[in-house]
Amino acid sequence: MKEKLETILNKTINEIKNSESIEELESIRINVLGRKGELTLILRSLGQMPAEERSALGKRSNEIKTEIESAIEEKKDKLSSSKIDHILKSDWIDVTLNRADFAKSFKPGHIHPIYTMQYEIEDIFSSMGFQILDGPEVETEYYNFEALNIPGHHPARDMQDTFWTEDYNLLRTHTSAIQVRGMEKNKPPFRVIGPGRVFRNEAVDAGHSNTFYQIEGMMVDRDISVAHLIFFMKSLLKEIFKREVKIRLRPGYFPFVEPGFELDINCLICEGRGCSVCKQSGWVELLPCGLVHPNVLRYGNIDPEEWNGFAFGLGLDRLVMMKYTINDIRHFHDGDIRFLDQF
Ligand code: FA5
Fold it and tell me: Are residues 275 and 130 in the same domain?
């Protein structure tokens, strides 16, 4: 038994010396000192030994155990520090690198002009007591059409060429879908706006995109009239352009408002002379609006006998185009840094 102990010691010390990883070291430890390890089994069998041998063998076994344990610890330390050395050699950064030159190679980004405008409008409406709402870009037919008084058979569905998904949902064609969600969430009186990206399967030209931005607005209260609507729209445009802008209001048809209007602004790109953005008309269609149709209020669980309201849907891209005299809507989504750098 004595020789066996010495053999275990020598063999294990040798294995420890030659081991190359902490994992290898651990398996050596388990083989000798684990629950079923060679030395553990000997220690366990000591009870059956004759008393005269037991004490000497027990003493030596414990010495060997301590020796192996410290050899393992020592080797573990060595292996860990060489691993750290290796990481330090292979994975280093030069902290003396000239930071100014390094920083110059990156251009700081900034907010896209459409979002700058969106945040500005959110601030203006917040200051007038409006809450800001959000809604999903993939909508159900119910929120985008049905609850806005546009049932399946209604020809008004053709006014907005729609991208449908295979499961009969759609990419929202306007932010008006947020209106119904707003009515479901709020009890009148309330004022909300809902900014967002919308999608239409339209031919793209200087003034039309298939992906663009709108801001929906809705105010529900008692005795709301077209005068309230015009007041809020004029206040908004004055804040944005920091001056009076010429507007015109003409009748417009949207099934979810009655009466409905188109609010156009005098084209600021050509000063009303006519260009490709305003389709040579001198006017840009910017802000359709009207008084909320009673059926829409009913869809939102609001009693039209007691409450009424106005709603509008502002085209954000066109507003930004007017503000900065940008002559083509496609610039917004091209990702051309030379264009974006100007804002
Ligand atoms: C609507 O989307 C209605 N939901 C707006 C509304 C809301 C009316 C509430 C009444 C009450 P319209 O399809 O006209 O309406 O679009 C609204 C605005 O979005 C337009 O005035 C225009 O500024 C912008 N717009 C529409 N189509 C495009 C397009 N293809 N590219 C860029 N802007 C567009």
Answer: yes
Cβ proximity of 224 and 188 under 8 Å: no
Domain's final residue, options 30, 57, 90: 90
Backbone torsion region of residue 211, taken as left when φ is above 0, otherwise alpha when ψ lies between -120 and 50, otherwise beta = beta
CATH of the domain at 148: 3.30.930.10
Ligand 1 pocket, CB under 6 A: 174, 176, 200, 202, 208-209, 212, 214, 254, 257, 260, 285-286, 288-290, 311-313, 315, 317-318, 329
Q: Does residue 230 form part of some domain?
A: yes
3-state SS, residue 280: coil
Q: Where are the beta strands (DSSP E) in the chain?
A: 131-132, 138-139, 170-171, 190-199, 211-221, 247-251, 257-266, 283-292, 308-315
175 CA closest ligand 1 atom index = 4
Q: Which residues pair with 309 in a beta bridge?
A: 220
| Mean pLDDT, rounded, for 306-320 | 95
Residue located nearest, by CA, to atom 23 of ligand 1: 315
CA 138 to CA 221: how far, in whole Å?
30
For all residues of the chain together, what is the average pLDDT? 91
- Whether the per-residue pLDDT at 240 is higher than 90: the answer is no
In a domain, 97, yes or no: no
Percent of the chain with pLDDT over 70: 100
Domain hosting residue 13, numbered range = 2-90
Q: Is the pTM of this model over 0.85?
A: no
